[in-house]
Specification:
The structure holds three protein chains of three kinds.
Chain A (H helix, E strand, L loop, with lengths): L1 H15 L9 H8 L1 H33 L6 H15 L2 H12 L4 H8 L14 H25 L3 H9 L4 H30 L2 H7 L6 H10 L6 H30 L5
Helix pairs in contact in A: 1-12, 2-12, 3-7, 3-9, 4-7, 5-7, 5-10, 7-9, 8-9, 9-12, 11-12
Chain B lengths: L5 H4 L1 H11 L8 E10 L2 E11 L4 E5 L6 H9 L6 E6 L2 E2 L10 E4 L11 H11 L4 H14 L15 H14 L4 E5 L7 H18 L2 E6 L2 H7 L2 E6 L2 E6 L1 H6 L4 H6 L4 E7 L4 E4 L2 E5 L10 E6 L4 E5 L5 E8 L3 E8 L4 E7 L10 E6 L3 E6 L3
Parallel strand pairs in B: 3-8, 3-9, 6-7, 7-8, 13-20
Antiparallel strand pairs in B: 1-2, 1-4, 4-5, 9-10, 11-12, 11-14, 12-13, 14-20, 15-19, 16-17, 16-19, 17-18
Helix pairs in contact in B: 2-5, 4-5, 4-6, 5-6
Chain C lengths: L20 H10 L6 H25 L10 H8 L1 H35 L3 H8 L2 H4 L2 H14 L2 H8 L2 H27 L2 H10 L4 H12 L1 H17 L2 H5 L5 H12 L1 H28 L10
Classes of the chains: A mainly alpha, B alpha+beta, C mainly alpha.
The complex binds adenosine-5'-triphosphate and magnesium ion.
Adenosine-5'-triphosphate sits at the interface of chains B and C.
Chain lengths: 265, 373, 296
């Protein structure tokens, strides 16, 4: 907690003071009036939102497909190990993999050119928001698999059979039982995914070398690029703003969880 | 909590409840005809023939893995036979999916939908049948009254005890006016006291509603006490289907004899006529099956079919003695080393531990197994 | 009806929420297993999406700086001393972090499960924090701290990657390890084990090390491997604080030796971590009664 709290404190403290230690909101108003910072925020939010939704949907689907198979089978082992690797480790390596695939000379780019589709003339680049989102989804799906699997495992087969014996079709079982039961876990996991993508930086750093404006890039630039004096504190202010966004996410998460507690033990 | 039981204890209230909750639906019979189900090379059902009469409660009893659950799931439509037919009433249901069968199913545990309160759980089947909301709410409440749980209608399943959950599950299964009620070890997750109560309740409800019921259990006292007839299964087949009394007193095969109740296996010899010689006494032999006179066999005798009489010249010695209240259970070690279990009504001059006793067989007949078995 | 008489409401004690595992397994298996179309579809799509880029990367790594194809880039990895040093630094950090994490987490999990189950929810909430708190913010804070720290602290802590990074990696690794170990502990009958061990006269310490640890060793290994994965992969904090760790060096190596080596290293490192986790899943599956190969 100290190791988490102390840096956070120093960020917050730094953001609200001048170099002389006087209380100020100057740093925040700087970020709000900077077009670059604001578009970085917009980009970060967009990418968080899209990759969270994509990752959550596809991840749940994948996890369900895996669980429907042979428990302890090869597929389950491979998917669970691969999920661990991709979700927790792969930031930098996967960026390279994407460059190799969809970079200007990437395998897929070249292949598509052969069949007459030129991605890059169509305005696509791997170092774009779309490219980044594509790469982020690559670790968002595995993270979703990890987060949602316990909830899917918690669906008892008796519920489906009981519903059937009471006359429910597969669809009405899903509608009335499975989906309501899964919703809290699903929404919770989606929020985590959002937070994860919103704050991820490693992949972007390796993929674009920092050319795409997302908030972490701006912070890094403010801290390390010694262009203008006082930039440091603007970076810290951006950090505080990120924390605020994340705090909202966490509040949402808690609200979902406590709503579910009505019928969850 | 005893208030919860009043609807059941008061006949008039209950009859009203039943009349409203379960419309008169004629009881139907069930017929398994040569049903087979294989899992890989395991034959879970190896040609099961079982006829359940309309309105009857049949308990399926048998050791673990003998195919009880498989039989029940096939009747419920959750599993499908490789061969054979399942006939309910006069319809062949073999190919009908579970949600079109109108059968009430009660599982061992944890089958209530956690996201619905008790009332919605009970009303679920009616909702699937597109019944009006007020109608199904009313019916759910009536059924809850029937199982004595009116007060809990607004609670969620996790707020109920295990016994209450099972009662709700029963109400939920009954709400759809099922043609057949299926129960798969519905009491085995409960502790002993609740188990006994609920078992009596289930039986009483079943009798009142006259609903054809298949009750799977591995607890023999449960099967014997609740059922009209008990089916003892062994390795995917029905060994014997008979009243509890007959299953206990006159087991048709050695397997049934040994599986149901405690049993002594005593060496004997087939005599002339349908007779067998055991412990120096002659008994009628129930399953001679062409055995020639003089064949060595094992006679099956219940502990209560044998008495131990204190006798210093007796052939055995009491080595263990358990007082059970109304009866006393003793282990008698014969001079040839054989142990015999004896249970007799407790009385003042029963043998005590270490005492020499003579054994007397009270039964007139017995079932035997081949000596090699 | 008198047969059903009295005390109906005399309720049984609540049942545990966990259904006996074998039952689940049997029922799940009992569904007819046809290779359904939707399963096949998603596996194929997933395979293309997840394996495709790795294959592309592999092909890429075979292109030498001379333009020919060959395994030369993989040979260069071994010779690159900067990379090797960075790897050692990272491995050192990983090892220490892993030990610290297990020592911290295992007793906590056991204690919470035994004594304060109410805290479970709270802890699950806290363990999400490091996933969502932007590492870049953490790094920014650290840089601030470093700037304001007295000289002796800087030379003691911040001057070395080992001392500067380990505490924060511990923080980052805690939530994942907590989840992994908690999953393992949940699967054993902790109370009985502890009571049995206590009644045989063990101290708390030996109960923990001799009784609980062997029973959750797969989960602990899982936590260790995830921690290692995390330490080998974390780049943001290290980069901002200007420490040269393995992943940072991977990025930099591209500028020196060309992208081929860079990609080759990342493929190897991915495979390495995947191998660790995959091997672990077999260990987990071999255990008697294990119903799930889930590690995390
Ligand atoms: N889905 C399945 N896959 C493979 N084998 C199965 C499956 N379901 C049941 N079996 C096998 O079929 C046999 C009968 O199983 P069943 O569940 O009917 O037994 P049971 O009599 O209900 O036993 P218990 O008293 O333990 O519940 C067993 O040998 C079991 O292993
Ligand atoms: Mg069974």
């Amino acid at each position: 907690m100290i190791f988490l709290g102390l840096p956070l404190y120093s960020v917050i403290h730094g953001a609200f003071t001048t170099d002389g230690g006087v209380l100020t909101f100057q740093n925040f108003s700087t970020t709000f009036s900077s077009a670059a910072d604001m578009s970085a925020f917009k980009n970060s939010l967009l990418i968080g939102l899209w990759t969270a939704l994509l990752g959550a949907g596809l991840g749940t689907w994948l996890a369900a497909a895996v669980l429907a198979g042979n428990p302890g089978g090869l597929v389950q082992r491979v998917v669970s190990s691969a999920s661990g690797v991709l979700a927790y480790f792969a930031g930098v390596p996967l960026a390279f993999a994407w460059i190799a695939t969809l970079g200007s000379t990437g395998v897929a780019t070249v292949l598509l050119q052969h069949i007459g589709i030129n991605l890059y003339s169509g305005g696509f680049t791997i170092a774009s928001l779309t490219g980044l989102a594509l790469a982020y989804t690559y670790f968002q799906i595995p993270l979703m698999v990890i987060l949602i699997t316990p909830a899917l495992e918690g669906l008892r087969p008796q519920w489906e059979e009981a519903a059937q014996s009471l006359g429910a079709s597969k669809l009405s079982y899903m509608r009335h039982v499975a989906i309501p039961v899964l919703t809290p876990a699903f929404v919770g996991a989606t929020l985590i995914l959002f937070g994860n993508a919103f704050s991820a930086y490693a992949t972007a750093l390796a993929l674009t070398g920092g050319t795409i404006a997302i908030v972490p890039t701006q912070i890094n630039e403010a801290l390390n690029g010694n262009v203008i004096a006082n930039q440091d504190r603007v970076g810290l202010a951006l950090g505080v703003e990120m924390i605020v966004v994340v705090a909202f996410v966490m509040i949402g998460y808690w609200m979902v969880q406590s709503r579910a507690r009505r019928w969850l033990q | 909590m005893s208030t919860e039981s009043t609807p059941l204890a008061d006949p008039s209230a209950q009859d009203v409840g039943i009349a409203a909750a379960v419309a008169a639906r004629a009881s139907v019979g069930v017929n398994f005809k040569g049903v087979q189900r294989h899992f890989g090379d395991v034959a879970a059902l190896a040609g099961l023939d079982l006829e359940i009469h309309p309105g009857e409660l049949i308990a399926l009893l048998g050791p673990s893995g003998c195919g009880k659950t498989t039989a029940l799931r096939i009747l419920g439509g959750f599993d499908h036979p490789d061969a054979g037919q399942v006939i309910v009433g006069d319809r062949d249901l073999t190919k009908v999916p579970a949600n079109k069968r109108d059968m009430g199913m009660v599982f061992q545990a944890y089958s209530l939908f956690p996201n619905m309160n008790v009332r919605d759980n009970v009303a679920f089947g009616l909702r699937m049948r597109k019944q009006d909301k007020t109608v199904r709410g009313k019916r759910a409440d009536e059924l809850l009254a029937l199982v004595g749980l009116s007060q809990t209608a607004d609670r969620y399943p996790f707020q109920l005890s295990g016994g209450q959950q099972q009662r709700v599950a029963i109400a939920r299964a009954l709400a759809i006016e099922p043609t057949v009620l299926l129960l798969d070890e519905p009491l085995s997750a409960l502790d002993a006291q609740v188990r006994h109560q609920l078992r009596a309740e289930i039986r009483s409800l079943q009798l009142r509603l006259g609903i054809t019921t298949l009750f799977v259990t591995h607890d023999q006292s449960e099967a014997l006490s609740i059922a009209d007839r008990v089916g003892v299964m062994h390795a995917g087949r029905l060994e014997q289907l008979d009243t509890p009394e007959n299953i206990y007193r006159h087991p048709a095969t050695a397997f049934v004899a040994e599986f149901v109740g405690a049993m002594n296996r005593l060496p004997g010899r087939v005599g002339d006529g349908d007779e067998v010689q055991v412990l120096g006494q002659r008994l009628k032999l129930r399953n001679r099956n062409e055995r020639p006179a003089g064949t060595a066999v094992i006679a099956m005798l219940r502990p209560e079919a044998i008495a131990a009489v204190p006798d210093s010249a007796g052939s055995g010695e009491v080595v263990e003695r358990t007082f059970l209240g109304a009866s006393v259970r003793m282990s008698v070690k014969l001079d040839d080393g054989q142990l015999v279990l004896v249970e007799e009504p407790s009385h003042a001059d029963a043998a005590s531990i270490g005492q020499r006793v003579g054994l007397r067989i009270l039964a007139e007949s017995t079932t035997v197994a081949d000596a090699g078995e | 009806m008198s047969a059903t008489g009295g005390n109906l409401g005399l309720a049984a004690r609540g049942l545990g929420a966990i259904e006996p595992a074998p039952d689940r397994k049997k029922r799940r298996a009992s569904r007819r297993r046809r290779p359904r179309l939707w399963r096949v579809t998603i596996f194929v799509l997933a395979a293309i999406y997840f394996i495709g880029p790795q294959l592309a990367a592999f092909k890429f790594s075979l292109v030498l700086s001379s333009g020919k194809y060959g395994l030369g880039n993989y040979g260069q990895i071994v010779q690159n001393s900067a990379l090797r040093d960075a790897l050692f630094t990272s491995l050192e950090i990983s090892a220490i972090t892993a030990v610290v994490v297990v020592v911290l987490v295992l007793p906590t999990v056991v204690w919470i499960r035994l004594r304060a189950p109410k805290l479970t929810l709270l802890l699950e909430g806290i363990t999400i924090l490091p996933i969502v708190i932007p590492p870049v913010v953490l790094a920014a804070g650290l840089e601030q701290l470093e700037g304001h720290s007295p000289q002796w602290l800087v030379s003691l802590v911040f001057n070395h990657a080992l001392t500067g990074l380990t505490p924060f990696y511990v923080i980052l690794a805690l939530p994942f390890s907590y989840r992994a170990i908690d999953t393992g502990v949940r699967a054993i009958d902790l109370r009985t084990l502890v009571d049995a061990s206590r009644s045989l006269g063990s101290s708390s310490f030996s109960t923990l090390t001799r009784v609980i640890l062997p029973n959750v060793q797969t989960a602990v290994l899982g936590a260790v491997f995830l921690t290692v994965a995390l330490c080998l992969g974390e780049v943001v904090i290290a980069n901002i604080l200007l420490y040269v760790t393995f992943p940072v060096e991977i990025i930099q190596v591209g500028q020196e030796t060309g992208p081929g080596v860079q990609v080759a290293v990342s493929i190897l490192s991915l495979l390495f971590v995947f191998g660790l986790l995959f091997a672990l899943s077999f260990l987990a599956g071999r255990k008697r009664g294990a119903t799930s190969t889930r590690l995390i």
